Amino acid sequence: MDKNGDGIMVFLNYIALLLSITVLVSLVRVLAGPTVPDRLIGLDAANTLVVALFVIFALIHKELIYIDIAIIYATLAFVFTLYIAKYLEGKK
Amino acid sequence: MILLAYVLMGIGTAFQILGVLSLYRFPDLYTRAHGTTMCTTLGSISLYLGIIVYCFYSFSFQWVSFSFHVLFLLVFLMLTGAAGTHAVTRAAHKSGIMPVGSFDKLKEDENV
Fold it and tell me: In this complex, how many residue pairs, one in chain A and one in chain B, have their CB atoms less than 8 Å apart?
């Protein structure tokens, strides 16, 4: 299919490892945030990183359906963030 | 061409690591939200552009469809990432969380 597929596959595996570590590191902020919007910001960053991880795994495993799963996941994460933000608004 | 894909993916991963690092190195909710959202959005855009460049490098019919799906996800991410963070910080400001510093321009505008 491509001329030097092995090099970029190793590179994509390293990228997936680094992104998994950053997802775990951003979930520490969700557990230890001082206020509720801090936790929500950490969860939003984790959702963005998980969507990027879905795309990387789609390119590694050569499956197109993972991109569609990533699009649905991004939509649900956006709706979740807006819903919790509307819930927090105006609460002392 | 393949070198451009490597460079774009490397820049994207570096910006995402910096964005998660900025969750811990800022003193405040608003600065944390600013740094994290801008760095992860730019990192995702650069990573997806690298993937699109790689897909057009290894050219076949399935990979064109793949790159258009990734392009749709990129546009969707550019629309929703900033909007979600703006909603969260607006709700935080309305619920009385003050930024670290001496002035609050939004509160002054609402009082006038």
Answer: 142
Query: In this complex, which of A5, A37, A59 lies closest to B92 when CB atoms are compared?
Result: A37
What is the value of ipTM here, to two decimals? 0.86
Asked whether B32 and B97 are in contact (CB, 8 A), the reply is: no
What is the model's pTM?
A: 0.87
Task: Locate the chain A residue with the closest alpha carbon to B61.
Answer: A1
Write out residues 29-58 of B within 8 Å (CB-CB) of A. Answer: 29, 32-33, 36-37, 40-41, 43-44, 47-48, 51, 54, 57-58
Domain boundary assignment for chain B: 2-111
The per-residue pLDDT for range A3-53, each reduced to its tens digit, is 556 788 888 899 999 999 999 999 998 898 788 889 999 999 999 999 999
HSE (side-chain half, CA atoms, 13 Å) at B76: 21
Query: What is the rounded (10 degree) CA torsion for B71, B75, B80, B86?
Result: 130
